[in-house]
Specification:
Helix 3 (77-98) links the parallel strand 3 (60-63) and strand 4 (101-107). The chain has 300 residues and is of the alpha/beta class. The strands form 4 sheets. A 6-stranded parallel sheet has the order 2-1-3-4-5-10, with helices on both faces. Strands 6-9 form a two-stranded parallel ribbon. The termini are far apart. It has helices at 18-27, 48-55, 77-98, 130-145, 166-173, 193-208, 227-237, 281-289, 292-295, and strands at residues 9-13, 34-38, 60-63, 101-107, 150-155, 158-159, 180-183, 187-188, 191-192, 215-218, 225-226, 245-248. It has a domain at 9-165 and 189-223 and 266-279: Rossmann fold (3-Layer(aba) Sandwich). The relative contact order is 0.15. The chain contains 9 helices and 12 strands.
C-alpha cells in the first residue's frame, strides 16, 4: 500500500473510550488526515477476519481498545488476554498484510514495580497481575510481527474528561466527604489523556515521515507523584482544601489485582523520533482541571 504523508489515513480502535475520544479530537485538527473511528460495537478486535477487513486502506492504526478492568482480569484472565494480547496479534498481522503502521497502547503494568529509578524502555518486564500479563503478550506480538513498523506506547495513571478515573473520582467524592484517605506508598506519573493523544499523533506523524524508529516509547508525564500527592494537587487545583486528603497505605485497600508500587518510566526514546517528552505532571494537571468536564465536577 502506498502511504501518503500529506493525507494519511488513520484508523483508531477503542474510539469511544477516554483516550480514544481524545485521539479523535486531536486528529480532527490535523489538516489532510482522514480518520476512521471504531468502537467495540463497530469492530470486534478479537475477530481476525473483521480486523483484516477493517484495517485495509489505512496508513496507520492506533489501538486504544482494551480490557481495562484490572481487577476483573484476575478472575477472567483468558477473556482479558484475548482482548489485550491475542487481538493485538490480529491487528499486527493485518497491518503487516496491508503495509500499515501500528501504534499499540500499553501499560506500566508490564513491570514488577520494584525499581528505585525510572524504568527504561528496554528494562526487563515482569508483570504482577493478569492485566499486565495480557498486555505484555500484546507487546510481544507487535515486536515480533512488525519489527520495523510497530510502535508500543506505554502509559500509566491515565485520567481525562471522558471516562472514570482517579481525578474525576476525587472531585466527585469531594462533594460528599469531609476527608479522603489516599495511599501514599505507590509512585507513578499522572498522565492526562488529552496530552497523551497529542503525543501519540506526533509519533504517528513521525513514523509516517520515516523519522521515528519502531519500538517502545513511554507515554507518561514527567516527574513523579504518589496517589496522595495527586489527590492533594487535584483538590488544590480545584480550589478545595488539600488538607482534607489524608495519607494511608495500600494495606488498607485490598484489591484482587496486585499493583506495582513504583510505576515511574523513563522517556529517553522520544529523542530518537525527534520528539520531546510530555510535560511535568503538575503542569499537565493544571491544564486538565481547566477543561469543562473537570470544571463541571467541582463542588459548589
Amino acid at each position: 500500500m502506498t502511504t501518503s504523508v500529506d493525507n494519511p489515513r488513520w484508523l483508531v480502535t477503542g474510539a469511544r473510550g477516554m483516550l480514544g475520544r481524545d485521539l479523535i479530537a486531536v486528529l480532527d485538527e490535523v489538516p489532510g488526515s482522514t480518520v476512521t473511528a471504531v468502537g467495540r460495537a463497530d469492530l470486534d478486535i478479537t475477530d481476525a477476519s473483521a480486523v483484516l477487513e477493517a484495517t485495509a486502506g489505512h496508513d496507520i492504526v492506533v489501538n486504544a481498545a482494551a480490557w481495562t478492568d484490572v481487577d476483573g482480569a484476575e478472575s477472567a484472565e483468558s477473556a482479558a488476554t484475548e482482548v489485550n494480547g491475542t487481538a493485538v496479534g490480529h491487528l499486527a498481522r493485518a497491518c503487516a498484510a496491508h503495509g500499515s503502521r501500528l501504534i499499540q497502547i500499553s501499560t506500566d503494568y508490564v513491570f514488577a514495580g520494584d525499581n528505585t529509578e525510572p524504568y527504561s524502555e528496554n528494562a526487563p518486564t515482569a508483570p504482577l497481575n493478569s492485566y499486565g500479563r495480557g498486555k505484555l503478550i500484546g507487546e510481544q506480538a507487535v515486536t515480533e510481527l512488525l519489527p520495523t513498523s510497530g510502535y508500543i506506547v506505554r502509559t500509566a495513571w491515565l485520567y481525562g474528561e471522558h471516562g472514570r478515573n482517579f481525578v474525576s473520582t476525587m472531585l466527585t467524592l469531594a462533594r460528599d466527604r469531609d476527608t479522603l484517605d489516599v495511599v501514599d506508598d505507590q509512585a507513578g506519573q499522572p498522565t492526562w489523556s488529552a496530552a497523551l493523544a497529542r503525543q501519540v499523533v506526533r509519533l504517528g506523524e513521525a513514523a509516517l515521515a520515516g523519522r521515528a524508529p519502531a519500538g517502545i516509547y513511554h507515554g507518561t508525564a514527567r516527574g513523579r507523584a504518589t496517589w496522595y500527592e495527586l489527590a492533594r494537587a487535584t483538590f488544590a487545583g480545584a480550589g478545595l482544601d488539600a488538607d482534607r486528603i489524608r495519607p494511608t497505605t495500600s494495606e488498607n485497600f485490598t484489591r484482587p489485582a496486585k499493583r506495582p508500587s513504583y510505576s515511574v518510566l523513563a522517556h529517553d526514546r522520544w529523542a530518537d523520533a525527534g520528539l520531546s517528552p510530555m510535560a511535568d505532571w503538575r503542569d499537565m494537571l493544571a491544564q486538565a482541571l481547566d477543561c469543562p468536564g473537570f470544571v463541571a465536577l467541582r463542588p459548589d
